[in-house]
Every structure is written in structure tokens, then in C-alpha cells.
Write a structure and sequence with these properties.
Blueprint (H helix, E strand, L loop, with lengths): L3 E4 L2 E3 L5 E7 L8 E7 L6 E6 L5 E3 L7 E6 L4 E6 L8 E8 L13 E2 L3 E5 L2
Parallel strand pairs: 2-11
Antiparallel strand pairs: 1-3, 3-8, 4-5, 4-9, 5-6, 7-8, 9-10, 9-11
Length: 123
Amino acid sequence: EVELLESGGGSVEPGGSLKLSCTFSPSTSGDYCMAWFRQAPGKEREGVAIINTDGSTSYRESVKGRFSISQDNAENILYLEMNRMEPQDTATYYCARARKFYCTMRANIYNYWGRGTQVTVSS
């Protein structure tokens, strides 16, 4: 059973920074890619950032240049560093894992999900 556990959420003022972490069970075999999603109240879940098996990354247009996804394979931790945050970034953030080499922003390809961590950007 693969488990994902997010942490690091909280409240921050516009322009501030947060770093989210997601600890995950080590992969026993096969390729996997990981991603961060977010869901604001009344809105659909949307992909924020992806890291593929080969370490390549991709980002939602609205967070490019502000957010950075990374992964510590030795410690089995996925990170999302968020800078210059905006009120529109307010949401519950989820990490997810797919048994694939390359991920996309489509939520239905992911096999495992964490329970989420709340991020609020407000003055």
C-alpha cells in the first residue's frame, strides 16, 4: 500500500513563501512520477506541478517562475516551494503518484493521493 502524507501548509500574506512536503512510501518496482494538485472551494482539482521519473518538471502556467517542485529520492520526500504567493493560490494542496514514466495534469491518471494540506494566502 502506497501512502502519501502532505505537510507544511499554513497561512501567509501575499508575496510570501511556503514549502510543502509530501513523504511517500518507497517504490518497490517500476517507474513512477509525482505531482502536486490543488483544489479551491467550489472549484475542480487542478494540476500545479509535475516531476517525472527522469527528473524533468512541468508547471501550470499561473505558477511558472514562482513555484518549484523537487524530490529527495534518498528520503522519499516530494517538495513544492512556493514563492511570491497570491490570494489565488489559496487551496487545499495534494500530492499524487502515478505508475508512469511521465505524468500529465490529468487527475485521473494518478493511482495514489495524499489527504491534503491547507494553504491560505491573505492579508
